[in-house]
Amino acid sequence: RQSTADFTAAIAWAIAHYQSKSNQKELYIISDFQRQTWSKVVLPHFDGKCFYVNVGTEKGENIAVLNATLENSLLLKDEDINLVATLCNYSDKEKSIPVSVHINDIKVVSQEVTLAPWSTAQKPFSFKIKKGGNYCGVISIPDDYLKADNRYYFTINIKDKEKVLIITDEENNQNNPAFFLIKALNPYGIN
Question: How far apart are CA 96 and CA 115, in angstroms?
Fold first, then answer.
């Protein structure tokens, strides 16, 4: 799972670890200093020199695929699979981009997504898979200046629907014990 770093904790650890053990009291912070991340950073007190090295670019606009979650608890073949992608726009401009979902290198769905500046949004996708089995998936967006966060990989296991034959000599109604067994095995009446 990809997430942002905890810079406040990392810097506090570095200061605590090296401040008492070193005569050279210099701290170098190397980052792209994106506002989305650094606006939340609280710098602790440091008795030394602090150097900031910006490796970002002014022109660098970045959109990232942060996460994906499945809304289905059970994935069955030929039934809707509901996937929600979390996307983030790390720029000061509104962006519209195509977002694609590939399963085993085959595009199953693609939609245009518009993201406000400095925002995170969730985009739902729905698709079906025809056969049971294990599948590799990827949510992707077009490459930008930071390619590392343009894809989110996941796996899914699609179950085959089991066929069950129930035989009874009673009428098919709600008083029949077989009725409750049928409902327990197939509560939504899906064929």
Answer: 6
